Amino acid sequence: MILEILEAALKLGLPVACLSWFVLQRLYASGQLDRSHDSKTVAENIKQIRRSRKQNKALPSDLVQTKWMQFGGGFYGCAALWTFLIIELNELIDLFSNFPGFSTLLENGLINLIISLLLNQLSNFIAAMIWFSYWTDGGVAIAIWMVTAYLGYLSGMTVARREWRLDL
């Protein structure tokens, strides 16, 4: 059980903490969120930002925030976005390490390749939406991974609220 907690912390908790810090720090810095609000008010404000972005697609946003909002924003959005990134990275590594060649990729035509890529993206999106099942085989481990991810999210939120930042 201790090893499961460590694995969950390293593979999901810490990355979710970093991702939540990154996204929320930018929202605080842009003035879209107020640092003096408690976590419940911040969650409500995130939902409001998400609704306004759905209504007005012209609002400025970056790729990370857009994907985070597509996955629901907040805690669930961070955990799902991290899972999506890991799934995509693993598939990209697999593609390059076992590259079948362009002739194999295009043997059924370009349209078929594009459709396959789109279906793969949909499949990865769905897998990321049920992120808790991606990381475990089930049982009690699901609770460990969910709690670890949530603690990571809260940590990242706290660090962002307190204005701890890396000047890159």
Q: Summarize this, please?
A:
With 168 residues, the chain is an all-alpha fold. It contains 8 helices and no strands.
Give descriptors for this structure.
single chain; 168 residues; mainly alpha; 8 helices; globular
Written description of the protein model:
The protein is an all-alpha fold. It has one domain. It contains eight helices and no strands.
- The number of helical runs is 8
How much of the sequence is in beta strands?
under 5%
Task: Return the domain count.
Answer: 1
Order of helices and strands: HHHHHHHH
Radius of gyration: 18 Å
Write the layout of secondary structure elements.
Blueprint: H1 2-29, H2 39-55, H3 63-70, H4 74-97, H5 102-105, H6 110-129, H7 131-135, H8 140-161
Helix pairs in contact: 1-4, 1-8, 3-4, 4-6, 4-8
